[in-house]
Amino acid sequence: xxxxxxxxxxxxxxxxxxxxxxxxxxxxxxxxxxxxxxxxxxxxxxxxxxxxxxxxxxxxxxxxxxxxxxxxxxxxxxxxxxxxxxxxxxxxxxxxxxxxxxxxxxxxxxxxxxxxxxxxxxxxxxxxxxxxxxxxxxxxxxxxxxxxxxxxxxxxxxxxxxxxxxxxxxxxxxxxxxxxxxxxxxxxxxxxxxxxxxxxxxxxxxxxxxxxxxxxxxxxxxxxxxxxxxxxxxxxxxxxxxxxxxxxxxxxxxxxxxxxxxxxxxxxxxxxxxxxxxxxxxxxxxxxxxxxxxxxxxxxxxxxxxxxxxxxxxxxxxxxxxxxxxxxx
Length: 329
What we know:
The protein is α/β, with parallel strands linked by helices. The protein has 2 domains: 168 residues, Glucose-6-phosphate isomerase like protein, domain 1 (Rossmann fold, 3-Layer(aba) Sandwich); 126 residues, Glucose-6-phosphate isomerase like protein, domain 1 (Rossmann fold). Helix content is 47%, strand content 14%. The chain is built from 13 helices and 9 strands. The strands form 2 sheets. A 5-stranded parallel sheet has the order 2-1-3-4-5, sandwiched between helices. A 4-stranded parallel sheet has the order 7-6-8-9, with helices on both faces. Strand 8, helix 11 and strand 9 form a beta-alpha-beta unit. Helix 3 runs parallel beside helix 6 and helix 9 packs parallel to helix 12. The protein is globular and about 55 Å long. The relative contact order is 0.15.
């Protein structure tokens, strides 16, 4: 990363802002009525697209820690292939721009309200949505970072309010320092740019982080990257890996040692492997926040090395407004 006093890109500024923003969000009051709204829900659906879908998946796992029935689904899936829902259910929409740029997120929000669900949004500051928790100002880089980690921290606090003791205020308060440490010493400096493919993998919550990290690398550096669940990777997806690729194994967790075993198998096949371990004293789900930040720093480094602008990811035909309007309510 560049000199701390002169961040070169909006992405770098966003990455560096995370410890302070997370401290603010850890202390920010959560309205009692929003918590009560969730307490009254029979089931909770967490809905998002892209990075927000990754937040939804980790958020659902956090709510499981509170003993609540929670399910993450993509915005398009919820709209076009809606699961059975009823008025006793609740929906948490995770959308940094409150659906402004994601048609299916807007449609999911409207559909849930029309169905009589208890609806809550996690979105950017100033979005103006009712019954919402706000994270940070609108991100200036297309490669979203601080809005994602902010959403995860708020989801952990909601889970704690529903009874997840693992995410106590004292534990959540340790997250910002863990993120500072991840920015200062990311432990990804030795990961080389592969000639062909960067592949990240992990178990459970770390598999979500693998997919989020791969997305950041693709967006920021235009480098082919993929993220996998370790078991899924083993069952056929690892077959094409070659020495031109590089594999990143993410920890924690590694409940049965499968992550290490697959990493060793890749090494036996002549594929370069880097193990990235989050050492912060945090539960595995909260550890994904600083672990993700380590991969954000990697994506920024790759972008700088490749001469890519990490702040403009969606462009040319991919930015066609007609494309992004499909599915709007």
